[in-house]
Amino acid sequence: VLHGRAEFGGERVATTNFPTADDPSLFVGVDLDAAARAIYDETAKQTDVVFMSGVSAWSSGQLDNELKQGSWVAVKAPVSLALNAPGELWQDLMRTLGGEYAEMSCMPSMEEEEE
C-alpha cells in the first residue's frame, strides 16, 4: 500500500526531494482503520491510497547491491507520480529514458504473457 498521508500510518520512504503540496511524502504500509475512517468521513478520497498486488522482499543490503550491479533502472520522478500512476507507468517511464530502455517498453507485461 502506498499513500501520501502521515495520518494513515506506515513508514515514510526517503525521497531525494522535500515534500511539497504538489509532491507529498510517500508512505509504505497503512492503518486500514484510519484510512477507511477518513474516506468514510470524506476527509480523504479512495484515490489517496494505492493498493499494489504481489510481493517484493529483499534481505538487508540486497536492493542496494542490485542497484549497484545494474539489475534495476533507477528513474528520478516526483512522488506524486507513484500516487497517481497511470496504468502504463512503467512503459511511459522507460520510453522517456530513450534508447534501449524505450525498446524495453515494448516488451509484453507478465499479465499479457499469462493470457
TrEMBL record:
InterPro entries, alphabetized: AlgH-like (IPR003774)
* Signal peptide residues on this chain, from the entry's feature table: none
- Protein name, entry field: YqgE/AlgH family protein
Organism expressing this protein natively: Phytophthora ramorum
Superkingdom per UniProt: Eukaryota
Organism classification, top ranks? Eukaryota, Sar, Stramenopiles, Oomycota, Peronosporomycetes
Database matches in Pfam families: DUF179
